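Quick one from the shared queue. A colleague (R.T.) flagged 3-dehydroquinate synthase as missing a structural entry in our internal table.

Convert sequence to C-alpha cells.
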Amino acid sequence: MLKSISSNGCQVHFNEKSYEELNKHLNNQGYSKIFILVDENTHTNCLPVLLGKIEQVYDIEIIEIGAGEAHKQIETCTEVWKIISELGGDRKSLLINLGGGVVTDLGGFVGATYMRGIDFLNIPTTLLSMVDASVGGKTGVDLGPLKNQVGVILNPLMVLIDTEYLATLPPNELRSGLAEMLKHGLIYDEAYWNELKNLAQLTTNDLDELIHRSVVIKNEVVTEDPREYGLRKILNYGHTLGHAIESYFLQSGDKTTLLHGEAIAIGMIMETYLSSELLNFPKDKLDEIKATFLNYFEKVTITNEDMEAIIVLMKHDKKNAHGNVNFVLLEDISKPKLDITSNKELLINSLEYYKK
C-alpha cells in the first residue's frame, strides 16, 4: 500500500486508502450538503466509480462544467457559485472536485471563496492533476488566455489519488502528465529522470510508484516554500515559455489547442537550450532531453511569427518582476537556478533548436 503524504496539513491518500479516509471524514463531519463538481468527461467516466465508493446516503448534488482549459474562467465560477447558492449551499457544505487540473483548480477557488470558504477536497482524475495539481494548494482561473492569473493558495482538506481513474484517459492525456513527471526528475532527481526516460511503453501498472514519487518530490518543494518566494519557483521550469505557447495556441483560431503537458514539453526543450547557452548546461544532456521529449511528444509547428506573439505573452508570466521575464534554468540535471533573464535573439535560437 502506498504511504499517505502530509502536505502542510493536507493529507494525500492513495487508492483504497482514499475511500476509507473519505468515508470516515463524511461520517464524522455531518455536512448539510455535499456538492460534487465534475466536467462532462468525469461525469460519465469517473462519477459512477466515486458514488459507488461512498458507503452511506448523503444529500449529494452534482454540478457539471464544460471540459477543457477554455472553461477555466471566472464566468464558470460565477455559474457554480450561483448553483451552489440556489441549491441551498451553506457554510457547512462540502465541495468535492472530481476531475483534472481545470476542475480541481477552479473548484478549489470556488470552495475557497464561496461564503468566504467552505470545506473542499480534490480527487484528481488525470495523470497531470495527480502529479501536479494534487499538492501545493494552488487554486484559480485564467484571465482570458492568460494562465492562472486569478486565484489563492489554499490547501484542500484532503486529496484522494486513485489510479483506477487513469484507465479512462486517452494516451495523449497520459503523456501530458508524464511531462510534469519528467520535469520533477530534471529539476530535482536525476535517478528519477533516468527511470522515466526509459519507459518505452507506459502502462498504468507502472504508474503507482512513479506517481507517488512525483507527489513526494513536489511536496518536499512546496512544504519548504508554500508561497513561492524561492525554492518553489523551480517547479516553473519549462513553464515560462510553455505557458505562453499554451496560451497562444488556445487563443489562435487556426491552431490545434495543446494539452498543458504538450506545451510544457516544448518549453522544457527550449529552456534547456537557454540553459546550455546561459549556464553551460552540458550539450550532450541537452540533446538527450530533446530526444526524450520528442520520443513522447510529436513535434509541433511553431513559426517565427508565432514566436513573436509568444514572447509578448511571456510578459504576463507570474514569475516576472520589474518588467523582466524570469526563467528557471538548469546548470545540470537536478541543479536549477532561479531568475535568469534572456535576450530575444536567444529565445528565437531556442525555437530554431526545437525545430531542427
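The chain has two domains: 5-168, 172-355.
Residues 111 and 292 are 39 Å apart (CA to CA).
Added to the table.
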